[in-house]
Amino acid sequence: MFLPINKHILVSKTAQEEKTSSGVLLPESSTQEPAYQSLKIEKVSFDCEKFNNHDLNAQVIAPSNMVIEVEHGGEKFFLVQENYILAMVK
């Protein structure tokens, strides 16, 4: 079990398809990472002030460079501090 602490939120990246101006879909591997990412809340640290367990599965937006990738036990986890979340998408 992977539990975030210290005001971190465990998130998963949501798939984002990029289209060129001509309408051609580009695979994720061929493009630069966007400045902001759409993320889904998976778990919330017990000490978060702005988010709680009622926000699980919510879609949020955060700067890409603030998403921390942690590899543990052969799995990748993505964390973001709650103060770097810019918006919730409903």
Summary, kept brief:
By secondary structure, the chain is mostly beta strands.
Number of strands: 8
For the largest sheet, list the strands in their spatial order: 6-7-1-4-5-8
Instruction: Give the topology string: H per helix, E per strand.
Output: EEEEEEEE
Outline the biggest β-sheet.
Answer: 6 strands, antiparallel
Q: If you compute it from the alpha carbons, what radius of gyration comes out, rounded to the nearest whole angstrom?
A: 14 Å
So how many helices? 0
Shape category: globular
Distance between the termini: 28 Å
Q: Determine the CATH topology.
A: 10 Kd Chaperonin, Protein Cpn10, Chain O
- Briefly note the structural class of the backbone: mainly beta
Could you state the CATH homologous superfamily? GroES chaperonin
Give a quick set of tags describing it.
two-stranded antiparallel sheet; 90 residues
What does this structure look like?
This protein has 90 residues and is mainly β. The protein has a single domain, classed as 10 Kd Chaperonin, Protein Cpn10, Chain O (Roll). 0% of the residues lie in helices and 43% in strands. The chain contains no helices and eight strands. It has strands at 8-13, 18-19, 25-26, 36-44, 59-63, 68-72, 75-81, 87-89. The strands form two sheets. A six-stranded antiparallel β-sheet has the order 6-7-1-4-5-8, with no helix packed on it. The chain has a two-stranded antiparallel ribbon with strand order 2-3. The chain is globular and about 45 Å long. The two termini are 28 Å apart. The model has no long low-confidence stretch (mean pLDDT 89).
